[in-house]
Write a structure and sequence with these properties.
The protein has 306 residues and is of the alpha+beta class. 38% of the residues lie in helices and 19% in strands.
Length: 306
């Protein structure tokens, strides 16, 4: 039995599928299956029930998976402890950003890391909040930038900045004269939104557009990418929500869009860095927070250390 075996059984338990688990572990499906069979033979008991189209842990398997998770966590703590005594810049750093943040922060964070840690290799990964939180727990990310509303209580949350929300409309839109807007005033028949939340409390009060509400549209749009929606809004009467960071970037790029601020309450999101409870990279996070406090991206209010 070795740590790799433990990674295999955890992956199978999480995915309920040998093939998908093998992809997660970067091995072939036969290699993973054979190794688990060897482990079961060594232990003298089955860890998984092989059902039609599904794999489930046995009662013993569930206990073994829990112990394996604890053991792998301890092994990672050993690696993390060793990392604390290395040159911080010699250890690569990975940071996750959501699709509504990454396009507007790549340049900013590139400059930040080049200033603070010029010799460090940094990887920025774009993904959805729930995927990134799991990646932080699985030690695949050092830090993920998410809204406090979306973060997991099993992880540390360090507040970095607050950011207001706007309604984006094309220049010349009938709503452009408004100084501010409430979620209830957003026209349901013209509203398009992404399937995942941005992390603002007021999103729960926004209209939920559906086929019936948009049935009168001669040209309709369903999109997975935020920028696709915003480009569509440039030449239509539709509208969507945008963060301050995105609004500032669109202004700089001279997009023909106007932005109406939402009224309180719930119009601000607390954005922060999520990390593991005993992550040894916390000193780096302190330096990053201090840099943001002194040099915040345009449109946000720093909250680090507040």
């Amino acid at each position: 039995m070795n740590l790799r075996d433990l990674e295999y059984i955890i992956a199978v338990a999480r995915r309920s599928n040998f093939s998908v688990a093998a992809e997660d572990c970067n091995v072939s499906q036969p290699a993973l299956s054979n190794q688990i069979k060897k482990l079961e033979k060594e232990l003298g008991i089955e860890l998984f029930l092989r059902l039609s189209g599904e794999v489930r842990p046995t009662a013993c398997g569930r206990q073994v998976v829990k112990i394996a998770q604890d053991l792998l966590g301890s092994a990672q703590q050993i690696r993390d402890t060793a990392a604390q005594y290395q040159d911080p810049e010699a250890v690569p750093f990975s940071i996750g950003l959501t699709p509504t943040l990454a396009p507007y922060l790549t340049k900013y964070f590139s400059e930040l890391f080049r200033t603070l840690f010029p010799r460090m290799r940094v990887t920025m990964i774009e993904d959805l909040p729930h995927n990134m939180l799991q990646m932080v727990e699985d030690h695949e990310l050092d830090v993920a930038l998410v809204a406090q509303l979306n973060h997991s209580p099993a992880l540390d949350f360090t507040s970095i900045w607050e950011e207001p929300l706007f309604l984006a409309i094309r220049n010349g839109h009938p709503l452009q004269t408004l100084q501010s807007i409430t979620p209830e005033e957003v026209p349901v028949h013209d509203f398009i939104r992404l399937p995942h939340p941005f992390g603002y409390e007021l999103e729960a009060r926004l209209p939920m557009p559906g086929p019936a509400s948009r049935a009168a549209k001669r040209f309709d749009l369903t999109a997975l990418r935020f920028e696709t929606i915003c480009r569509h809004i440039c030449h239509s009467d539709d509208c969507t929500i945008v963060s301050a960071l995105a609004a500032e970037q669109f202004r700089q790029d001279n997009w023909p869009l106007s932005f109406i601020p939402f009224e309180a309450p719930g119009n601000l999101r607390n954005l922060g860095a999520v990390s593991r409870l005993k992550c040894p990279r916390k000193p780096l996070l302190q330096k990053i927070g201090a840099y943001i406090l002194d040099n915040p991206p345009k449109g946000v209010t720093p909250t680090f250390g507040a």
